[in-house]
Structure formats: C-alpha cells, structure tokens
Amino acid sequence: MRLGVLTKAELVQSATRWAQGGVAAVLAEDPDSTDLHLADTLKAGAGLCDVDAVRVLVDEGPGRVNELIALGAMFDRDPDGALQLAREGGHSHARVVHAGGAATGAEIERALVDAVRLTAAAVMEHWFAVDLIVEGGRCRGVVALDPSGARQEVRAAHTLLASGGAGQLFSVTTNPEQSTGDGLAMAVRAGVPVADVEFMQFHPTALHHPQMPRPLLSEALRGHGALLRDSDGERFVDELASRDVVAKAMTARMLEQGTDHLWLDATGLEAFDERFPTIAAAVRAIGLDPTHDWLPIAPAAHYLSGGVVTDLSGATALPGLWACGEVACTGVHGANRLASNSLLEGMVFAPRVTEAIEAGRESPQPTGAMRAVMGAGAEIPGRPLTLPPLPPTCGADDAEKLRARLQRIMTAGAGVLRDAASLDATAQGLAEVADVAADPEVRNLAEAGWALVHAARAREESRGAHSRIDFPHTSDAFLVRLVLQ
Ligand SMILES: Cc1cc2nc3c(=O)[nH]c(=O)nc-3n(C[C@H](O)[C@H](O)[C@H](O)COP(=O)(O)OP(=O)(O)OC[C@H]3O[C@@H](n4cnc5c(N)ncnc54)[C@H](O)[C@@H]3O)c2cc1C
Predict the structure, then answer these.
(1) Structural domains in the chain?
(2) Ligand 1 centre from 346 Cα, in Å?
(3) Looking at ligand 1, which atom is closest to the CA of residue 344?
(4) 102-127 burial code (b ≥16 CB/10 A, e <16)
(5) pLDDT single digits (tens) 341-395
(6) How many angstroms is it from 253 CA to the middle of ligand 1?
(7) For 78-97, what is each residue's pLDDT tens digit?
(8) CB 3.0 to 4.6 Å from 303: which of 201, 231, 240, 341, for a disulfide?
C-alpha cells in the first residue's frame, strides 16, 4: 500500500501530543487480567459499550503497545527495567503505561511521526480536508483546501478518517484548536451514520486560566489526597468518584454559588514537584505554588465518546471510507470513556483497518457498533434518528468571533448539565451561527454541535457523560445507540 497523510496543521499538531496519563493495557497478568480490564471498561461505559469491541480492545492492546515500543516509543521503567504501571480512576488494577511522567502522548506521537516520515508516500501538511468525494456509492478521497487555500481533489483507493475529537465545541476545553469535529461533520454531510455523539466527556479538573487548551490537573492528584473545595472552602463531593459524577457536582455547585471555578487543594501532598513535574511546571508558570496555593479549576470538554460508526475493522457504512481514533464510534466507550482507553483504541483499531484493506475488504460487516446500523443481532440495538439539515450558509461573519459565540452557546445549553429547553435554545443558536459561517472550520463545529444537540435532545435520561436535569435517572428504554443520519 502507498500511504498519504493529509493534515490541516503540522503533523505533530494533534490531541495525541497532549495526552498525559498513559495507555491502559494488561502487560503484567495476575492479579490483573484482560477480563478485569474488560469489566472496568464496561462499567465506565454505563451499559452502552459493545462487548465484542471491548474484547478486541483489551485482548489486542498489549501486543500493540509492544509494537509501539519496538517502533521506538520509550515508556517509563523501574530501575530493574520493568515497565512502570500506574492505576487510574475506574481501573481496578495498575495497568497504565506512561512516558516522561505525564508526557505520554508526546512520546507516542514522536515515535509515530518518525515512522510516518520514513514510510509515507506523501505527507501533506496544512491541507484542510473539506468534504468526502462520493461517487457511485463509494468514497474516492477528499476535496481539500491546499496551503494556498485553493480547492483540490485528493483521490485515494481508500480514505481513513483520523481527524480526532470536537472539544472546541465548548468555551473551556483541554483539546487543541485542531479538534473541531471536521471528520464528524464530513461524515454527516455525506449521509454516513454517526452514533453516541451526545456523550461528550468533561474532565472535572482543568486549570482555570485563560491559557488554551487548558492544562489538566490529573486525577492522580486526587488519588494522592488532593481535595475539592467550593468557593466557601467546603468539600462537596467524594474526590475519588468517577469523572462524570465529579464534573456534575462541580457544575451544580458553581451554578449555586454563581462562580465560574472552584478549587483543588493539593497543599497536603508530599513531594509535589518530584511526583508531578509536568503539572508543577504548568501551575508554577502562572505564578501559583501548589504547596501553598489552592489551584483554580473548572470542568473542561475533554473527549467525544461517539463518532462515525464502524465495524470491528474500522469500516464505516460508506464503502471505501474507514475511521479510527476519537472520530470513530467503535463501541468501546459506550456512554463514558474509561481513562487511558482512547490512545489504546487508536493503536488497536487503526492496524485493523490496514489489515482489512490488505485483505481486499470494501464494505462494513455486521460486527461491533456497526450492528446498530445494520440491525444484525446487536446487543445494543440502534435507534435511527433523522438529523434535520442545518440551514445553509448565506453570509460571512468574522470566523474567530463566530467560533467564540458558538462555544458560548454550546457551553450554556449543551454542556455538563442539559435540559430540553437549553438544548432547543442551543439548536436555535447553532442555526444562526451556521447562517453566517463561511469559514469551513466554524461550519464544521456548527454541524458537529448540531448532531450532538439532536442526540442529547432525543436521549431523555441521564447516563454516563450525558446528564439531563429534566430526566435525572437512567432509563432501560434508552439501552440503545442513537444513530444519526
Ligand atoms: C489534554 C489531554 C489529555 C489526554 N490524556 C489522555 C491519556 O492520558 N490517555 C488516553 O488514552 N487519552 C488521552 N487523551 C485523549 C487522546 O489524546 C485522544 O483521544 C487521542 O489522542 C485522539 O487521537 P486521534 O489520532 O484520533 O486524533 P488527534 O490526535 O487529535 O489527531 C487528529 C489529526 O487530524 C487533523 N485534522 C482534523 N481535522 C482535519 C481536517 N479537516 N483536515 C485535515 N486534517 C485534519 C488534526 O490536525 C490532527 O492532526 C487526552 C486528550 C487531551 C486533550
């Protein structure tokens, strides 16, 4: 195969680079096992994980981590050479490999970028993919803007969407500015089914500071005893509860107290700088001393659990189009991603795409999350939702201002806590933004937000990362995957 990589910024600019904690994989059996990793993942996914997809994830994960090590990625090791394994929220055992303390993504990306530069037939940087080319019911490549802004066709025998997430839908996010839901929007425009997009995971403890993307104050701090305090200095939630529970409690408290941030008190932690050098550097850079100061924090949009529906080989419903990484909905995350499973998902499912293409596969099979689209024996049946078209763009407002306006609209109505009225208002606001969104990235944000809001409106329950104030309980009637087309 001849591989071309087309990317809208530089090759190194991506969410992968920012990943901190690590990659979850069972590299040392007993007392841990892949069955336990599977059970932890299903628990986090709140009933909506595809069990077959999770089985693939946990079984193939360790081998893919070892391949990455063979490719040159250097994970942290003990003096005796054994890989250091950390335990993160939601994991029953220590199974998270990391690099440079909390610089795992940067190291993985370095190894992959080196490999791509050595092997890819073409690396096209500053090329913005705008739309899929669909001819004769098959994807034939993309229409893209070249570095001069001219529209060009980039044709390919197979097209793999690996465009990442959509954290930029919200005012406060840990995601880099490239995470604008472009792949999701391209798929929606081409009529390719997307699912689980109502499940945007918010990280509860992002540093509250104008810097964007927001630095993360990892769960490990709470794991080591850091406390959450409200604006009166009171504790209000179990610091070790899951991400969604903590993010909800924080948002409710912020609304009650009329504030836009709360506090993480890590002053009781010993050896902060030695244990958490990356975090210490980030907070010291803004003039805070974590051994004396409480750290200002607020929830930030972090990870989109859903995306373009694929089978267990990454095939989408459109022949010739494949998806992997955060843009895909393989079914492994369900309603809530387990920490450190997302890098793993990319590492496990991307090679399955190339293997399927090499084997001559063209079309999806009824496996994994794709069964919710194809209707063949899915444990979690699909519920089709027709996505009304977003009004066309008729004018052109300043792209930067429009992006900020869209982010405010999404944050106010479709953030951590939602209800029918707030989602309706958000849909209305998005339609107004789309009307003047000539900039393709802002238009994509509007399309991705539109899909998220419609799914969130239809899911009349609270589950995992999706919290409806008007439907606060989980309902068995919603043990379904909402599939938008
Ligand atoms: C701060 C932070 C910490 C995290 N920590 C962890 C962790 O510890 N463990 C873990 O498992 N996960 C973690 N995650 C999540 C994880 O990093 C991401 O889910 C994962 O890296 C996504 O990889 P990806 O390849 O799908 O997308 P990305 O790495 O975001 O890459 C997408 C690429 O597509 C390009 N692109 C997008 N749209 C277009 C377009 N229209 N045209 C051309 N190119 C385009 C982008 O420029 C980018 O280069 C973290 C995320 C963040 C933000």
Answers:
(1) 1-199+305-382 (3.50.50.60), 204-300 (3.90.700.10)
(2) 10
(3) 11
(4) bbbbbbbbbbbbeeeeeeeeebbeeb
(5) 999 999 999 999 999 999 999 999 999 999 999 987 788 999 999 999 999 999 8
(6) 30
(7) 999 999 998 887 899 999 99
(8) 201
